[in-house]
Amino acid sequence: MQPVTTSIFELLKIGPGPSSSHTIGPMKAGFDFMRLVRELPEADRKRADGLEIRLFGSLSATGEGHGTPRAILSGMLGSQPDTCGADTLERFLDKDKPFDLDLGVKFLPFAPGQIIKDAVQHDYAHPNTMIFRLKAGDAVLLERIYYSVGGGFLRWDGWEEPERGEPAYPYSTMAELKKHLCGRDIRLHELILANEMAITGATEDEINMGLDHIISVMEQAVETGIQTSGVLPGPIGLQRKAAAMYNRARQEYFQGPGFIKALNAYALAASEENAAGHCVVTAPTCGAAGVIPAIIFMLKRHTGALQTELREGLLAACAIGFLCKHNASISGAEVGCQGEVGVASTMAAAMIAYARGYRFQVTENAAEIALEHHLGLTCDPVGGFVQIPCIERNAMGAVKAFNAYLIASTLDESYQKVDLDKAIRAMAQTGRDMSGKYKETSEAGLALSFTEC
Question: pLDDT for 336-374, tens place per residue?
Fold first, then answer.
């Protein structure tokens, strides 16, 4: 198997919610397609008189609620996920309002409502498929098929892995990773840092600055969320809960149940910001963007963790996220929510253990315990909105991560019988066997039960 070559900042990306596969990926697709359009011969651009965009699979089934058409159009108008404003998608709430797309030689009007929701079941290479066509009458001037493969990662027909350096310590499984850690005088965060430098060419200072920025965006999402009340956008009319939960925790001086209430509040806060379409960090996805920020907030505010400890813990979390993505998936459309909140909880459990000073065995055990108890978790968002059960599921993922850390750090390491590699294989197999109705289509599970009530 090929070694992991994913960058830290590919796994942890800043962008608008509510879904990395449904907003960040499609925004990138829209931006990329317009780049290709402007590279066409001037004569072709002058002939162009129409644009056809089709959504398939989960993007068709739940894209409206996730904001996919708005994200595509914002990308076509020049927005990029990591630099767009917090309210970027709100410009496109009127789906029938056309916007002028600049072809370089003329403008082409297009509205979000013109995007076609095509077949949910299809034969394309990934459940999250988009087809973009620039047309002149019936003639197709340019076509590209994109795949939003989870976590904001975008692929297309003909896509090739970009050139990058070889990892200093190549690994594709936890077993291989542990061989490096056992056979060399190196710790887990140092190994991940060395690999990032080798793969991307970035310096240690640049990576640390990037990690600090990621941490600050996560903290800001929590800070904003615990101070904001009201109703989230969309027809469900879901009330924000984070501020009320945080105030109750504060009244209890964050002691006993108050501590757990605070941890819940932090996860709810970042997840509610995601549901509002505001900027979050894919960790590893937008749908799971509340779990790791909650843990970071808890470590910093309640245990006095230093910035270096948070960085090191986040690097350990990335090691776990890389393995889950490499050997299974972080896409709800592929494996259900076990690949989103489940992986986020797994990463968070590892982060707590590592930031608290435990070495790799306790860190792995904490990660495995968290993943084991998310296996089989379906992705069934009500109405296609990342609200029910997604927001509370982030809170549950944060609490499970903390509990996994407690179990792993309290009991003897030798008690652990299942290693992380086995749990990841189980997640991949479970995802393959899971009915497609439970993979981000809103056609089954809680999504269906809710509409029947």
Answer: 999 999 999 999 999 999 999 999 999 999 999 999 999
Q: Kindly state the tokens that stand for 246.
A: 């945080």
Phi first, then psi: give them for residue 385, nearest 5 degrees. -95, 145
* pLDDT confidence of residue 453: 46
Q: Return the SS3 of 177.
A: helix
CA distance 9 to 227: 28
Of 307, 282, 301, give the one whose Cα is nearest residue 292.
282
Spatial distance between the Cα atoms of 222 and 303, rounded to a whole number of angstroms: 17
Name the strand (E) or helix (H) holding 352.
Answer: helix 341-355
- Across the range 261-281, mean pLDDT stands at 96
Q: How far apart are CA 347 and CA 11, in angstroms?
A: 12
3-class secondary-structure state, position 206? helix
Rounded distance, CA 331 to CA 411, Å? 32
With CA atoms as reference, report the closest residue to 215 among 296, 313, 282, 269: 296
Query: Which residue's structure tokens are 């009319």?
Result: 237
Work out the angle between the directed axes of helices 25-38 and 68-76 (0-180°, nearest 10): 30
The model carries a pTM of 0.89
Range in 147-161, 310-324, 424-438, 439-453 the model is least confident about: 439-453
Instruction: Count, in order, helices (H) and strands (E) of the chain.
Output: 18, 9
CA dist 427 → 1, 112, 198, 265, 339 (Å)? 18, 36, 30, 28, 8
pLDDT in tens, 100-137: 999 999 999 999 999 999 999 999 989 899 999 999 99
Amino acid type, 140: V
Question: From CA 53, how far away is CA 147, in angstroms rounded?
Answer: 13
Q: pLDDT digits over 40-76, tens only? A: 999 999 999 999 999 999 899 988 888 899 999 999 9
What's the token pair of residue 331?
């896409």
Q: Dihedral angle at the C-alpha atoms of 423, 427, 430, 434, nearest 10 degrees?
A: 160
Residue 440 falls in which region: left (phi positive, over 0), alpha (psi -120 to 50) or beta: left
Instruction: State the alpha helices, DSSP H only, in 277-338.
Output: 291-302, 307-327, 332-335
d(CA 3, CA 221): 33
Beta bridge partners of 279: 16
Amino acid type, 77? L
Residue 308 CA to residue 135 CA, distance in Å, equals 53
Q: How many other CB atoms are there within 10 angstroms of residue 382's CB atom?
A: 22
Question: 145 forms bridges with which residues in the sheet?
Answer: 131
Give 171's contacts (C-beta < 8 A, 6+ positions apart). 3, 4, 177, 179, 180
